[in-house]
Amino acid sequence: MMKLNSTPDIDRSHPLAVVVIGASGDLALKKIFPALFALYCQNLLPEQFHIVGFARSGMSNDDFRQRVEEKLTCRYVPGEKCDELMKDFLANCTYMSGNYDSAESFRKLHAELEHIETDASANHVFYMAIPPFLFLDVAHALHGAELVSECSVRGWSRVVIEKPFGSDRASSDALTKSMLQVFSEDQTYRIDHYLGKEVIQNLLVLRFANLIFDPIWNRNHIQNVRISWTENLSLQGRAGYFDQYGIIRDVMQNHLLQMVALVAMEQPVSLHSTYVRDEKVKALRAIAPLSIDDMVVAQYGSGSSGGRQYTGYLEEEGTPEGSITPTFTAAVLKVNNRRWDGVPFLIRAGKGMSDSKTEIRIRFRGVPGNIFAEAAKGLPQNELVITVQPDAGISFRIVNRVPGLGIRLDETELDLRYSSAFEGVMPDAYESLILDVIQGDKSLFIRADELEAAWDIFTPALHELEAKHVVPETYAFGSQGPDAATALAGRFGAIWRTDT
Ligand code: BG6
Q1: Considering 42, 122, 279, 398, which has the largest number of Cβ atoms within 10 A of its Cβ?
Q2: Percent of the chain residues topping a pLDDT of 70
């Protein structure tokens, strides 16, 4: 039976202003404003709310509203009612241009907010949808304009920032320290949008709200864990950003490692954000720093996909000549604790691959003393497959008797597909995360010590790759990645299986 999705019950009585800094950029237009509108359609924004777009370019309120409107969707409320909601929502959106490092510009913003807000105790969210090198300038300018308040009488202010948080442990620490001069850790919401994805939020539910998984969720029963993130896309104009960071910093150190932490962590004391994050930090701290002997780095060359020819990474517009930035990495992580000792966590992330898919596969051990060993020969062991995207679902691969005379066994799956099991709209990760910021729930945000632990795993390998100038292998665009990644998995008796 299909189950309807639910909406939370929240207190909407306190006025709120959301200031989106970098309002003319892709992140703001494609993700943040549509998410705010989705919350509005579900009555999840406070009764009195205001959205101010702030960026450098000059733009009238009407032009701004038009740009925002183009990206809004009527997923929650289709039909005529949606036009009405859009009109009301856009009436609460204004735009202001200014310089990111100018306290003067932010003083004007302060005056504008005072003008709009009828209640002096309104709360403020400052969403930094800007490149990280601007975070500090903006933070200081906000502070200079007296817009940062921790006091609930004046209303709280919270800041949302997006990765990359530095490029290694030292630069990340320096950024954290400088930001703390303005915003306390309590006020800081570091987004990893993967944590807002529905299936990823479900990981703790799957593990801890069901009885059957915990007793077998350990080295005695699990042979390996594979987490694979692939994208069938080229850089789409982001070479300037991507080449500075590469796939390890762009995706692995954050999105993939968060999935590893959620699979590996112990049950938190409760769902309080402190306890959830304590357990994640403990799991990350148990992971040995990655060695370059346990990883493969590669870069896509030209190739074809879906009948289209793609150029290689080095020929993409904006890629520096001779760049050795990896677009693909496979690695094996070792979680040195009692639960996981000896169980390889294989992770891989690649752009320019054959398909776009994110999945977690938990491979169980073989059956000891199996009386069906002969008939089950060649069949893989049990596997729990959690598909994050595109076709969200959870399936469990079992060995089953094929109906008929005589004994024939085959691999079959118990299959939960979200599209057929649940009715209603699947929220975008940003909807869930922005709602949490408004509600002050930090469970799905990265705490400073979590960030430190994540960088500690990758920093030595990143430095070594750079110091030794390791040249990545080449794989064809649209392929399954380099053979060396297959060999790496093979060392642990695993394969990068991608069928469902
Ligand atoms: C971003 C990375 O964090 O995540 C991008 O910077 C990547 O390179 C993107 O494409 C993937 O996000 P999603 O939600 O489309 O899987």
Answers
A1: 122
A2: 97
Q: CA–CA separation, 21 vs 180, rounded Å?
A: 19
Ligand 1 centroid, distance to 102 Cα (angstroms): 31
Q: What is the pLDDT of residues 353-403, one digit of tens each?
A: 999 999 999 999 999 999 999 999 999 899 999 999 999 999 999 999 999
Inter-CA distances, 428 with 4, 242, 397, Å? 16, 24, 28
What are the chain's domains?
16-162 (3.40.50.720), 196-426+447-491 (3.30.360.10)
State pLDDT tens for residues 437-489.
999 999 999 999 999 999 999 999 999 999 999 999 999 999 999 999 999 99
Burial of 1 (0-12, 13-18, 19+ CB in 10 A): exposed
DSSP label at 17? Answer: E
Instruction: Report pLDDT digits (tens) over 267-322.
Output: 999 999 999 999 999 999 999 999 999 999 999 999 999 999 999 999 999 999 99
- Protein residue whose Cα sits closest to atom 4 of ligand 1: 251
462 Cα–ligand 1 center, Å: 20
Q: How far is CA 17 from CA 48, 76, 124, 204, in A?
A: 9, 23, 5, 32
Give the atom of ligand 1 at the shortest distance from the alpha carbon of 197: 14
Selecting among 50, 124, 140, 255, the annotated active-site residue is 255
d(CA 89, CA 62): 13
Q: Which residue has the tokens 């990758």?
A: 458
**In contact, 29 and 137? CB cutoff 8 Å:** no
> Is residue 383 a contact partner of residue 361, using CB atoms and an 8 Å limit?
yes
Q: Which atom of ligand 1 is nearest to the CA of 233?
A: 10
Enter the tokens of residue 422. 């649940």
Distance (Å) from CA 193 to ligand 1 centroid: 9
Residues facing 362 on adjacent strands:
225, 384
Residues with CB under 6 A from ligand 1: 193, 231, 250-251
CA 241 to ligand 1: nearest atom: 6
In terms of DSSP bridges, do strands 16-21 and 49-55 run parallel, antiparallel, or are they unpaired?
parallel
Whether 255 is catalytic: yes
Taking the centre of ligand 1 as the mean of its atom positions, its distance from the CA of residue 204, in whole angstroms, is 22
Q: What is the DSSP string of 210-276?
A: -TTTGGGSSTTTEEEEEEEEE-----TT-HHHHHHHHHIIIIIIIIIHHHHHHHHPPPPSSSSHHHH
